[in-house]
Amino acid sequence: MSCRFSKTSIIGATAICLSVALIHESKADAASCPSTIPLVDEINAAGGIGGKKLALTTEDTGASSTDALNAMNRILEGKPVVVFGSMISPHVFAQTEVVTKSETPFLVGATNAKVTAQGSKWLFRTHVHDGQLADLIPEYLVKSLGKTRPGIMAVADDYGLGASRGIQASLTKLKISPVAVTSYAPSDKDMSAQLLEIKDKDADSLILFGRPADVTLVLKQMNDLGIKLTTIGNASIVAQTTLNNLSAAEADGGYAIGGMIPQTSSDPKILDWSKRVQDKYKVPADNFTVSYYDTVYMLKTIIEKVGCDKPAIRDALAATRDWKGMLISYQADAQGDLAHTLGIYRNKGKTPQLTGPIKESGY
Amino acid sequence: MGQLVVNGLALGSIYALVALGLLLIFNTVQIVNFAQGQLLMLGAFIGISCAVTHELPVAAAWAITMVAMALVGIVFMVLVYFPLRGRPAFLVILTTIAMGIVLENLALIIWGPLPVSLPSPVHGPPLRFAGAVVSMHQLLIFATLAVTLLLQFFFLTKTRFGILMQATAQDLHTARLVGIPVNRTIAVAFAFGAVLSGIAGLLVAPIFLAEPTMGGSLGLKGFVVSVIGGFGNLPGAVIGGLFLGLIETFGARYISSNFRDAYAFIVMIAVLIAWPRGLFGEKSSEKV
Fold it and tell me: What is the nearest CA distance from B227 to chain A, expressed in angstroms?
């Protein structure tokens, strides 16, 4: 048995070794590239797959969907057996057609709910998605925290606006109207106007959906303006990158629902892994790092079982049932989503604490 | 309302500081440096390396950053301006854009993609005024802008070197013929321009964090406020900056936060239609 991998990432066949290719998509995305740890370090250190060592190839997709597509075409020329794709949804949308035509299993962490609704039999997602968050965040805010006058603030891109629309729809189902719906451009640095609007409209809570850099600014500016609102959002609120740049007072009390993060685990092995990621790559392991790590090991298990035959790998991914990852179990649904368990977190000072896991309805 | 004014003025002051650095170079060599925002980013990261990574006192970090930025400005001039001097201006401008991209990628390699905060050099409880909160750091930004404007104005109009810079800007060849050390004058302009960007970076990083891509938007806003104020006019740039900060903040609050960035360009176009030379632009004529 022998396979070629690449990173955005790809696994393809060669006669000699296992070659891994990674496409990493953007500057922000690069922070989650420690997912290469299991690919090159751990798996090779443990003897590779079937005794063959992995060789890592990387492709940078740049910042645009066009670049992402070009990178994918270059990757596909290497005839990989599996592609590890992006966590940036527009890139995945641009790449899906060519990967599907190549009949190559495509494993992604992109969170737009529609990513797996494209009808590709070859695309699988191993990270939770915005559709799940859009249901669970309003539900937890209203039913568990008892808030009825939320304001919404989201980053004005595919990621944030898609989530904002989903959250509004879920609030409507709960018969709640947000008092204000605001957004900010990804490059915005001053969100005080949006925060003041939410405060002036007498909100009792804030649903915040963004990336760690901008969520940090929002939480800082809330504190500067003396705005005290129950804040809940995606995993950026508890991301180590966010907490590193906040004081305890600024971070304290923020709730997040999202993919599981390793920092709150009590398992010494997971904490040790998290520390090794931080030490080696100078970025904290986050929910995406965990997801990609699990993905690689899931794939390792599958390849050891079915070899490098692409349809066989695809079928095995589609048949995944209760595969135990680092923090959650994975189960494939009809669309190709494998992650259905999320974590509810709350910051105590600068330390995120796991309030409990929460499962998508039906799991 | 009061809080919006305070935050709008603080944001506008940052834009104005970027514009002052931009204009110092423009007023000497008649070139728009589109990498001014990336120089700001570089200043922020040098400050962070000193104050956070090496745990130097914040005052020392500021001093080192300013010296480093002066050197960066001179290197920038040697790499970008000198090789293309005398060529069409657009070539130099394109090169400044390219250099901005290089600086951004360099920062990504050196400091990584993650945002980092820099401690503010001033501490203390915020002031409360007419229902608005004014942080110590915001006061520092206002004070820095006022002092920078006055010093730059004094330097350009009352000192020998400032007058030499103006002469160089008006006619480089004649300036050289009458014995003005043109290269040294231009070097001082680039060094001071980079230092001003560095100061803006040091002021921005504690409130907006520093990341490699932070310079693009701020640099562009610096250009927009320069145009609004009347390109080359220092008080005009400051008023343009404050005006734009207020427009963006009030627009985001009362019109829509979705179009915040668009307000800058809508205002710029509107100003140029009404006042083609900007709000405070001087009439100029050119021989053809």
Answer: 21
